[in-house]
């Protein structure tokens, strides 16, 4: 284990129907395709940890952040148009958080290093856009609107040279938030 202090514990249960009814599937790890376990998913319960859920298999499509709690009809609560098709457990990071954001693709243009949440990159950094980033420490959520609103994307440590190549064509990221241990 590295010195990041990651805690790999998490548990989420998916249900075919609203209000935790119908067949269920309990998950404690990443699941790239839930169709072999459930034909559909309309509610879920996160018992511990945090998860990203996706409306397409293989961690593709729209992403939604789920923390501990009950989601009896998450589709109407979160504005989802489709079922959950895959999920990724987010390891808890207890060290420092660091991410560099860049105005242009391939780490071009203005660069700012962040160590805490930013509710509006235009106001804080005078950046009109964020098209690439390098997550050095911690796990982050990036939002396409200021004040942590709109579509989101989960970013784990690594280099992200071009958001368009990641299937995020036309999407701008305007706010960023650390995923902290407050999930539990």
UniProtKB/TrEMBL annotation:
The keyword Ribonucleoprotein does not apply. Pfam families: Crystall. GO terms for molecular function: structural constituent of eye lens. Gene3D superfamilies: Crystallins (2.60.20.10). Coiled coil: none annotated. InterPro entries: Beta/Gamma-Crystallin (IPR050252), Beta/gamma_crystallin (IPR001064), G_crystallin-like (IPR011024). Residues 10-48, 49-91, 138-180 form the Beta/gamma crystallin 'Greek key' domain. The keyword Repeat applies. GO terms for biological process: lens development in camera-type eye; visual perception. SMART domains: XTALbg (SM00247). Keywords: Eye lens protein, Repeat. PANTHER family: BETA/GAMMA CRYSTALLIN (PTHR11818), CRYSTALLIN, GAMMA M1-RELATED (PTHR11818:SF139). Crystallins are the dominant structural components of the vertebrate eye lens. Belongs to the beta/gamma-crystallin family. This is Beta/gamma crystallin 'Greek key' domain-containing protein. The lineage of its organism: Eukaryota, Metazoa, Chordata, Craniata, Vertebrata.
